[in-house]
């Protein structure tokens, strides 16, 4: 049995996280980000591209596990992204029968552009914050995500 948690604090954290999640996953926000980045991809493609940029080429099953989605979802996204020239299938050095998904040069440029667009938006939104406040926020958010992952049993450091 776990220790009691101060419910007011937890409720306020949950409320804030719900607001952030909703804001970041809204379709309009995605559209603004990819339009500013000049990268015409759907919302489901962005986490896949980011994962490949952060962790390098991997098998589709590994990619699905990392993103916590079903393998067919990854297969469909990989096919779309391959047709668009953002990813390529590479030989798997551990098993010649398998292929790994990796970013193409175009895919790497797309991820860099999406990241830059997102960072500009964040910088503009937090322009009134001091560098120290932004640094503390980043540290606390990383710590929170690490603790959430450890608690959920994933234990992997999402920062790579």
TrEMBL record:
An annotated Gene Ontology molecular function: DNA-binding transcription factor activity
Domain HTH marR-type per the UniProt entry, residue ranges: 10-146
Q: Which domain of life is it from?
A: Bacteria
PANTHER family from the xrefs? CONSERVED PROTEIN, HTH-TYPE TRANSCRIPTIONAL REGULATOR RV0880
| Protein name, as recorded | MarR family transcriptional regulator
